[in-house]
Write a structure and sequence with these properties.
375 residues; alpha+beta; Thrombin, subunit H; 4 domains; six-stranded antiparallel barrel; 8 helices; 22 strands; globular
């Protein structure tokens, strides 16, 4: 009898193993079937081309009675974000306009209202006015944090007005700081690519090989062939708010600073192995000012001295300026406290800072001091 019970137990055990194995196999097959398949370049273009639009902005002349009294136009790109007609593009593509013209790859033209803009991420949302029942497919967003250097990418847009142009390349680097020099602030976590990005590509999608959007093409550096794109995770964070509210509030510390270099470390008598961001200036009555952070001073010889060295935010190490800006943008919100770890006069201290909303952008001759993070 004991032998029969033993044999029965073995049979039941083996049966359970077989059932578990079959179940896991089925689940693995289901998982694999939901994974997006990589496309050939030809198939990817066929899949996405109809969802990329040309955006035309028409602006009246600055001096209607002057010699240049004709309206001016500028071209950019965008991509269809939702079936109800929302399109994502760059802020600089639609800046200053309330309505723009949209042209699909098949030549169909529509008008679109500017729904929301965010100068600090260079993102904007526009919405087609006409009721379109056969709108092309919506391009979905990928998780840009999954990107790796070397991943193949594709840019589709309208460079120099040449509609429906595709360029290819790879992810050259991630986590770049995109400095908007004429506005004095920087966009964190930008994707660097060697896919050709030219005027007119702005606002168009940077795609992975499955046809998902990993970024919005924003800038090209010439000469050099370097393209930069706002990552899809930033799009996912900001665009829904732009659709709902028309604007986005960014947490603001109120400093300018720079990554600690060997030269700066020598000047400040800081150990060469120490990392961090050296504060240069602090905006009066800003969160940094109210939180007790110190900027540099200029001595009688016109030389800068001092300034707190930010080494961490909420215990997260800060190695370079990109780390500081990225952490605040990604992890913090307005009216939230942040613990700023600093090195001051050889001593490590912590300061509690209540972050505020970044002041509205107003063009001046010295934006860097008021809104940027660079000295």
């Amino acid at each position: 009898m004991l032998k029969n019970i033993f044999n029965t137990s073995i049979i039941l055990f083996v049966t359970l193993i077989l059932i578990t194995t079959i179940t896991l196999s089925v689940k693995a097959e289901e998982t694999n079937s939901t994974e997006k398949k990589e496309l050939s370049l030809e198939d990817l273009f066929d899949f996405a081309e109809n969802s990329v639009v040309q955006v035309t902005k028409t602006m009246p002349p600055l001096t209607p009675s002057g010699p240049n009294s004709e309206n001016s136009t500028s071209l950019g790109s965008g991509f269809i974000y939702s079936k109800d007609g929302y399109i994502v593009t760059n802020n600089h593509v639609v800046e200053g306009a309330t309505t723009v013209d949209i042209t699909l790859i098949n030549g169909d033209r529509y008008t679109a209202n500017v729904t929301g803009t965010d100068v600090f991420s260079d993102l904007a949302v526009i919405k087609i006015n006409e009721n379109i029942t056969d709108l092309p497919i919506v391009l979905t967003l990928a998780n840009s944090s999954d990107l790796e250097v070397g991943d193949q990418v594709v840019a589709i847009g309208n460079p120099f007005g040449l509609e429906g142009s595709m360029t290819t390349g790879i992810v050259s680097q991630i986590g770049r700081l995109l400095s908007i020099d004429d506005k004095g602030f920087s966009i964190p976590n930008a994707i660097q690519t060697d896919a050709s990005i030219n005027p007119g590509n702005s606002g168009g999608p940077l795609l992975d090989m499955t046809g998902q959007v990993i970024g919005v093409n924003t800038a090209g550096i010439f000469p050099g062939g370097i393209g930069l794109a706002v990552p899809s995770n930033t799009i996912a964070q900001i665009v829904p708010v732009l659709i709902e509210k028309g604007n986005y509030t960014h947490p603001w510390l109120g400093i300018t600073g720079t990554t600690l270099t060997a030269e700066l470390a020598k000047r400040e008598h800081i150990n060469r192995t120490q990392n961090g961001v050296l504060i240069d200036t602090i905006v009066k009555d800003s969160p940094a000012d109210l939180g007790g952070l110190n900027g540099s001073i200029v001595n009688q010889y016109g030389e800068k001295q001092g300034g707190d060295l930010i080494t961490a935010v909420d215990k997260t190490p800060v190695i370079k300026i990109e780390d500081l800006i990225s952490y605040l943008e990604t992890n913090k919100v307005v009216n939230e406290n942040a613990t700023i770890s600093i090195l001051r006069d050889g001593k490590f201290l912590e300061k509690e800072v209540m972050l505020e909303s970044r002041p509205s952008y107003t063009p001046t001759t010295n934006q860097t001091k008021d809104y940027g993070y660079f000295p």
